[in-house]
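Appendix B.2, paired examples.
Example (i):
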Amino acid sequence: MRDSGRLIKLIKENQIIVIAVSVLIAISVIYFIIFIPLIRELKVKYTECRLCEGQTVYARSLIGYASHLDASSGERVLVSEKEAAEGLDEFTNHGKSLGINFISIKPKEIIVKEGVPYKILPIELEIEATDKQFVSFMGSIDELKKAIITVNSFDINPDRQNRTLLEAKMVINMYLSAKSGSS
């Protein structure tokens, strides 16, 4: 009992120190119970934010690059179905200027996808050209001004009668405006 009396007397004499130590212990417990899990979560969110920031910077650079392409392509736009013939004429005239011989051109049914501002007109082609003409033609399709055309697939074989020529069967996609009657 004597020891407990001494302890009580010691606590009363050092009341300020005991209160300060108690507050410090309470703050430490609160810190470890509440704030450490929050800090861990904050670190995870920070990492996620840095990742999103990197993706945003990448997307902005792509947008800037695409804007530059749009500015450099000038008048390239989605053509209407009525103007598709003009785009195909430009395509074939461009090929002919490079020495491409168009054996057949067969437009297929227009593909309409929901939620996109364009339609796709697939066109099957059979062409004949030398290897240099073919490479030059394939490399310059993107330079067309009246239509946006991409190559969907192609199959190349040497011509059976003239081994200096290649025969190619291709499917190209011409992108058309989804708005009817607009260019």
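Example (ii):
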Amino acid sequence: MSVQTTVENLKTMKLFGFVQALEEQLELPNTYSALSIEDRIGMLVDKEYTYRSNKKIVQLIKNAKFKIAAKIEDIDYSHPRGLAKDKLAYLADGEWLQRFQNLLITGSTGCGKTYLACAIGNHACRQGISVRYYRSPRLFEALTIAHADGSYQKLIKSLAKAQLLIIDDWGLDQLPVGNRCDLLEIMEDRHGTSSTLVTSQLPTIQWHESIGDPTLADAILDRLLHNAHKLSLKGESMRKINNNLTDVDHKI
């Protein structure tokens, strides 16, 4: 069998990483000729494994639909916001996700809640975890539409499958009656099986009132606040700070 036939067969089987590694070995015969057949096959398999892992990460990030292309390594610690590096290191480690714990990020507008949430979500994707990002108004709008067009159960199931659900800008408006029940169903599906990250301008003590119905609020918050990590950001708006930077600062 010719090498070209082998390559075509590998492509048919969608072993594109294997193909890349094989072509590298063929292009540099003197480099690889001294290696054992076991080592060379191992390199081919490793290349395919890496190719598939990277492809999965790209797809996970695409499916998450983050508002911002943020990364944990790009987080700015230079301005005092109550953002501790050791806390972020713990969250980056991902143990809280393995334990199906939640994360609540509160702070005034412009302090970086959305960026931080997207950075943590992006990092989770790079760990092979499925993530879905929603701004709170868009989530409840999608749920309302799903009720009307018959796709509600499909949407609820897709939300339940996400290992990390990010709900950004929680509590901007009091929830309509129907959405309170939707939220309870979402939290019930996720409790003890997956993690939820919520950002809000409101401190958690005010979340009960923002939901509107005391009974449903108790049930929702019991599931959301239980075993939740909390980050309370403080300080001046990052947007205002960035607007005050010089052209040189912006290039750094």
